[in-house]
Request: fold
Amino acid sequence: MVVFEAYKAARRAVIEQCSEFVSTSHSFTHDLALCAVQMYGMVESASIVPDRPLASLAAGLPHFAAGWARCWGRDVFISLRGLFLTTGNFVAAREHILAFASTLKHGLIPNLLDSGKTPRYNSRDSPWWMIQNIQDYTKMCPNGLAILQDSVKRRFPANDEWVPWDDVKAFAYSSTVAEIIQEILQRHASGIEFREYNAGPNLDMDMKDEGFNQKIWVDWATGIIYGGNRYNCGTWQDKMGSSDKAGNKGLPATPRDGAPIEITGLLKSTLTWLDKLSGEGKFPFKGVKATVNGQEKMVTYKEWSDLLQKSFEKCYWVPEDPSEDAQYDVNPSMIHRRGIYKDVYGTPKDREWSDYQFRSNFPLSMIVAPELFTPEKAMVALRQADKHLRGPLGMRTLDPADQQYRGDYDNANDGHDM
Reply:
């Protein structure tokens, strides 16, 4: 009885400190809000900054609870809106945004933060999730736009040189959050190419040597960002093969090299937002410098956004009616389900079939950039997802009709099934 009453009191205290949306809602919303308490806390081995203890958000429990494995850029910013912004914990949201912004390097934020001491830069989607959360913060937090003027000391020198966190060159200059956002856009517009620091088995014992090479670029004919290769996995579907017996060691199950649909959606959301802010005089930049058809020019946020708007469905939509194939960039011989959006656009030809896999990533783009989608096509794809991808507890990550689909996954099963 004592324990139960203490639990109820603690639960009530949490809910009372949450946002009005949470505190006045029903018990299911309260249960979800308690996840923010479970996932967030002070862990001595996993601060979000290297020089003092600061509470951090766990990527998952229990396996990602402490040490270098606790705090991941991608996982933080996929979940930050729900765990912090919706619950009203704007202080924690701001601390995480500033901590990761401080570590920007190569135009990316870390996948593995490791308190900013030895961060790892192998995640192509993380910076876009971070910017989306900054956008959400500005809209949901009182006086949220002020975060754009917040200044952060930069973990690494401007030339991307790797230095220890306590080196004299570390944290030697500062940038505002607005400048961080602009740097992400400009670095992508200019093209990003580097080899991971400390590449080799000490960094990743399963990855092939080519997997440590990172390359990201923009196709200025469409405005779409491409990146990755067969041997690395730069989005959230990042299971790396580790079995010599199955022949998949060093081969990601879903490399998603090319242009993953959610990155395109997050980019469009960012450009639309910045174009509006810039037009209102609330963002100090207007666009990026890019080399287009051999000529260096200024590409405004609106021009880039319009390119994506024009090309999106032509590149990603797989029409229901084969007679419409000529209107879209599709290879009919690769299509095994119609009325869907491709999961990736531009996978190299030796694995072109990956483009046409029906996965549950396209609704992410619908949420952040609904303007990209023709409503009628969107409803067709959503009905397909409801029929083929929705399960009893959530969404499947792959169409059960796909030859690669395996309904049961056992991490301990070192069999011959690649």
Remarks:
- The chain has a mean pLDDT of 95.
- The first strand starts at residue 40 and ends at 41.
